[in-house]
């Protein structure tokens, strides 16, 4: 197992200037958030379908509600963080996540499950944009103080999240040997520790952060064409990334006769991010601007889809048939390493003063809406009966077109 970022690693992220105690706390927060979350949620669909006997459409509906209550309301959490500061918003989110996991563990009826997953999703809509916006703000301050490119801090934040996403399911799988309720209570326990740590360590007031009225922010955001262009490009990336769960499983099953190799491909993606994210970000930060780095990532993602499209007409199966899928995962993950930290690092340059939380939340909400709409189109495309390469070529065109949407930096 790949070890999570240590305190020493966090302190030496730049090689020049150590991270502040607040930044270290926020990066470790992302690690803890994902350990607690992924100890439970990957096993939810099986619990609902087999453990509770829900119909497939109802399982999908419940999972969709969780995503909507989280991604769709990020903009609300970000605005609240601007208005009241990150401490009360993060603490409230932790309390709601604890309550949601405990409720889910004891939920025996559909209405109870729906209430629990809505609470779990809304909790993340509170604390995630608050933490992400403050990490971005602190990363800019760290850059201006001579620490190095802000993308290094955002890359470390990504690595911490990916390490949590890697450790969480392993913890959940062990706990499922008892039952699903035990996994839920363990996830709640992680957030109890996070709540206690933040109640003690998170400052009441963070220097340089002023509270801003919520009113009027949305109007300014909707007039910010450069930010909306970034949202569209980031949404195209997320739509492409979502194909790990839509197009890739279908291709793996065609090539291997089952979806068993998917677990190995997902592990490959996680391992690449944890081990290569910081070196890739360091290399890009020394050579590429934010715009060029994000454009390069989108081109790599497009190349991954093109690779499968070129191999698909041959109809290879077995190991040879899985090789293009593995190449797709590698190129998609490399593109993710360039796009994800840069998109977050770019937001402070585009946001109005005092509204970084709102803009950080809007980046997730707007791009999440693009994924929601685009996924239905993608599903229809895969079932359309077109030539084998056609859907993958169309998917390749999406990130390539998005690269042209990226705003020019002043």
User: Could you tell me how far the N terminus lies from the C terminus, measured between alpha carbons in angstroms?
Assistant: 43 Å
Annotation, overall tally of beta strands: 0
Number of domains: 2
- Main β-sheet: number of strands, strand sense, barrel status? none
CATH architecture of the largest domain: Up-down Bundle
Order of helices and strands: HHHHHHHHHHHHHHHHH
Note the beta-strand portion.
Answer: under 5%
Q: CATH superfamily name of the largest domain? A: MFS general substrate transporter like domains
Rounded mean pLDDT is 85
**For this structure, what is the CATH class of the largest domain?**
Mainly Alpha
Shape: globular
Q: What is the CATH topology assignment of the largest domain?
A: Growth Hormone, Chain: A
Taking pLDDT < 50 over at least 5 consecutive residues as the criterion, the unreliable ranges are none
Assign a percent range to the helix content: over 70%
Number of helices: 17
Radius of gyration: 21 Å
Q: What class would the helix/strand composition place it in? A: mainly alpha
GO molecular function, one term: transmembrane transporter activity
Transmembrane segments: 22-44, 89-106, 112-132, 153-174, 180-202, 227-248, 260-281, 293-311, 323-344, 356-377, 389-406
Keywords: Cell membrane, Membrane, Transmembrane, Transmembrane helix, Transport
Main location: membrane
């Amino acid at each position: 197992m790949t070890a999570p970022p240590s305190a020493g690693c966090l302190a030496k992220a730049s090689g020049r200037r150590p991270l502040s105690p607040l930044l270290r706390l926020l990066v470790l927060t992302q690690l803890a958030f994902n350990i607690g979350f992924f100890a439970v949620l990957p096993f939810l669909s099986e619990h609902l379908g087999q453990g509770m006997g829900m119909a497939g459409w109802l399982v999908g509906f419940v999972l969709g509600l969780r995503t909507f209550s989280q991604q769709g309301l990020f903009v609300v959490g970000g605005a609240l963080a601007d208005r009241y500061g990150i401490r009360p918003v993060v603490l409230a989110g932790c309390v709601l996540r604890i309550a949601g996991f405990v409720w889910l563990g004891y939920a025996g009826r559909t209405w109870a499950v729906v209430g629990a997953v809505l609470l779990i999703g809304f909790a993340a809509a509170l604390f995630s944009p608050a933490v992400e916006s403050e990490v971005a703000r602190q990363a800019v301050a760290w850059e201006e103080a001579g620490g190095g490119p802000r993308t290094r801090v955002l890359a470390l934040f990504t690595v911490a999240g990916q390490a949590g996403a890697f450790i969480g399911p392993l913890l959940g799988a062990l706990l499922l040997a008892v039952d699903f309720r035990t996994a839920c209570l363990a996830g709640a326990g992680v957030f109890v520790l996070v709540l206690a740590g933040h109640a003690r360590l998170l400052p009441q007031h963070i220097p340089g952060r002023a509270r801003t009225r919520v009113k009027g922010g949305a109007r300014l955001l909707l007039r910010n064409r450069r930010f909306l262009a970034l949202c569209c490009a980031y949404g195209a990336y997320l739509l492409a990334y979502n194909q790990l769960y839509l197009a890739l499983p279908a291709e793996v099953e065609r090539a291997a006769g089952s979806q068993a190799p998917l677990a190995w491909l997902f592990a490959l993606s996680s391992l690449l991010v944890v081990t290569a994210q910081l070196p890739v970000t360091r290399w890009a930060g020394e050579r590429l601007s934010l715009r060029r780095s994000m454009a390069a990532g989108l081109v790599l993602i497009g190349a991954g889809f093109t690779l499968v499209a070129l191999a698909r007409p041959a109809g290879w199966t077995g190991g040879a048939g899985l090789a293009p899928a593995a190449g797709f995962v590698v190129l998609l993950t490399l593109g993710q390493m360039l796009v994800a930290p840069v998109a977050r690092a770019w937001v402070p340059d585009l946001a109005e003063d005092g509204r970084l939380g709102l803009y950080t939340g809007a980046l997730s909400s707007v791009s999440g809406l693009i994924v929601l709409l685009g996924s239905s189109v993608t599903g229809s495309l895969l079932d359309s009966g077109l030539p084998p390469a056609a859907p993958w070529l169309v998917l390749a065109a999406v990130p390539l077109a998005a690269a042209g949407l990226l705003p020019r930096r002043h």
